[in-house]
Amino acid sequence: MIKILTDSTCDLSEDIREKYNIEMYPLSIFFDGDDTEYFDKVTISNDDFFNRLEKCDVLPKTSQISVLVFKEIFEDLMSDGSEIIGIFMSSSLSGTYNNSELAKDMFSKEVQEKIHLVDSKNVTLPLGLLVLEAAKARNKGKNVKEILEEIEYLKENIVLLALIQDLKYLQKGGRLSATNAKIGSTLNLQPIVTLEEGEVILKKLIRGEKKALKYIRDNALKIGIDYSRPVYVSSVHNDELADKLYDVLYEDLIKDKVNELYTKTTIGSVVGTHTGPNCTGIIFVKKQNK
Description:
By secondary structure, the protein is of the alpha/beta class. It is built from twelve helices and 13 strands.
């Protein structure tokens, strides 16, 4: 048996994880002035997290999964003789993947051969899409080698195009100076971001919401979507904004095209800490030109 393991930054819903038999372990979240350790999506929901975030002067901190916890997870998952494929958030953003490798090294060489670890170079729903497709491949009977080859292909071809509206969280997280945040807010500049080599990259600053949403549509059209794979239209605690993006995308990119569409998916607390609650985007696999 092959078990698919990931961390909570994949932002896959509980229904999807159960349907496709995906194992998930949460990262920890700590709020300033509160000693309680909250486990992402387990002891704190996305809604509860963002309700608290909006009142925070200091951004919450997240803690990666420890080496010893990973060792326990591996032991538990392999207790029935299973192999593990672990797919984790980008090592550029967290030490979670590196800790999984250190935990693997604590086992004998014979056991290590049953643990296959992947630095996804992604986070949030791009990671989720990668994990979901790996689980589907496993469920279709593909072996470990074939699943890992599928993962490597997808790592290079998953696309995120996202709009961040509230600049104060980028400022609080040190990703934007106070001066630039003030100028951006005054001019209604809205950052479009993407993921490259596991890093969140500013692609462009667009003035105004309508133009920003159309920019996402035009770029998705230019890149091309592989409609044999899932497509996500997601948001951070703001379904209304996601609905606006969906409406802009519908005629050209969604109508009579998408076989598997997820529209009410929410980017969770670990990534949402840095984007704030007003963010939306599309996640898809790039079409290959033959």
